[in-house]
Amino acid sequence: MLICLLLNCESVNCLSVTLRDAQHLCWKNFRKINDILDPERGKNWTPFVMVTDLLEEAGEVAAVVKGLEGFKPPEKPKTKEMLATELSDLLYIIFVLAEHYGIELEEAFLQTVNDYMLRFIK
């Protein structure tokens, strides 16, 4: 299972990686960012902060989808590119949380897909 992950280091490189690799790359990136933040002033991301960020991003996904579907006229028109950005924000946080708790998300995802297949396609 391959995804394209953009990493913004000194230059933007497009890499084709597995979900497992993406999870580890997000964790590395997250650790660099968290090390820069000041832990003594409570500026680093704890699992609780990550979950609240995840919920915030989910709300932003909902707002974009609402706008795309015409349920709530947005102040600024919503685009598929905006949705892609918000979904990517969610995915980043999910990868970081999974890595923090030692969860191999690729295995869990494949199991979930299998469970859906068994549940809905009989």
Can you tell me about this structure?
With 122 residues, the protein is mainly alpha-helical. The two termini are 25 Å apart. It is globular and about 45 Å long. The chain has a single domain, classed as MazG-like (Helix Hairpins, Orthogonal Bundle). The chain has four helices and two strands. The chain has helices at residues 19-36, 47-69, 80-100, 105-120; strands at 2-8, 12-18. The protein has a two-stranded antiparallel sheet with strand order 1-2. The longest helix has 23 residues, at 47-69.
Whole-number total of structural domains? 1
Strand content: 5-15%
Order of adjacent strands in the largest pleated sheet: 1-2
- Kindly report the name of the CATH homologous superfamily: MazG-like
Distinct helical segment count:
4
Structural class: mainly alpha
Summarize model confidence as the mean pLDDT: 83
As for the CATH topology, it is: Helix Hairpins
What keywords describe this structure?
11% strand, Helix Hairpins, two-stranded antiparallel sheet, 122 residues, mainly alpha, disordered N terminus, 4 helices, 2 strands
Task: Furnish the topology, listing elements before pairings.
Blueprint: E1 2-8, E2 12-18, H1 19-36, H2 47-69, H3 80-100, H4 105-120
Antiparallel strand pairs: 1-2
Give a summary of the structure in a few sentences.
This protein has 122 residues and is mainly α.
